Amino acid sequence: MRLILASASPRRADLLREAGIDVEIQPANVDEDVAPNERPEVYVRRVAEAKARAISRRAPGRLVLAADTEVVVGGEILGKPTGPEDAARMLQTLSGRAHQVVSGVCLFKDEEPVVETAVEVTTVEFAVLSAAEIAWYVGSGESMDKAGGYAIQGLASRFVTRIDGSYSNVVGLPIAVVYRMCTEGGLLLS
């Protein structure tokens, strides 16, 4: 059965297709504001479920996959940069330290979860970045629509010194988690 991906992210669609999972794209428009004192794991779960539920209402009987991925450092959700200065600030914050990439993933059918929403956490460590490296990367434009202001699968790969956990999670979707959820939900992915 073909999944509906409740996301406009070309990276998520590519990851699924590369894993042999056929998807139809239907982006969800939901409130993604972080609630006061909301923990990152709670936030990504809530947003992923809201995206899935919103698309599921419009597609009765269909399976909807949704996710939300955030970069977290020192307990702060960085989000996507609002502009070049914000991207530079994020990269300076990540420079020389470890951070977490936290994703909430859910699979819905008829506005109800097929299996429990999963949260995946991957730890990524950056090298110390010089001001020139940050300016170069921000100038490339690659950071502008990425959580935390970087793309591990792109030019920023040169800054990553260590990763502990799912690489695909850092790109935007933990594929092994998606596969497990589909298997537990009794879905065949052929």
Please characterize this protein's 3D structure:
The chain is an alpha+beta fold and 190 residues long. It has one domain (3-184): Maf protein, CATH 3.90.950.10. The protein has helices spanning 10-18, 40-58, 84-94, 131-140, 167-171, 175-184; strands spanning 3-5, 23-25, 63-73, 76-77, 98-109, 112-113, 118-126, 160-164. Helix 3 (84-94) packs across helix 4 (131-140). The relative contact order is 0.18. The model has no long low-confidence stretch (mean pLDDT 93).
Which range does the strand content fall in?
15-25%
Major beta-sheet overview = 8 strands, mixed
Number of domains: 1
Low-confidence stretches: none
What name does the CATH topology carry? Maf protein
Compile the SSE list and pairings:
Layout (H helix, E strand, L loop, with lengths): L2 E3 L4 H9 L4 E3 L14 H19 L4 E11 L2 E2 L6 H11 L3 E12 L2 E2 L4 E9 L4 H10 L19 E5 L2 H5 L3 H10 L6
Parallel strand pairs: 1-2, 1-3
Antiparallel strand pairs: 3-4, 3-5, 5-6, 5-7, 7-8
Helix pairs in contact: 3-4
Summarize it.
The protein is of the alpha+beta class and 190 residues long. The chain has six helices and eight strands, in the order βαβαββαβββαβαα.
State the main characteristics.
single chain, 190 residues, alpha+beta, Maf protein, eight-stranded mixed β-sheet, 6 helices, 25% strand, elongated
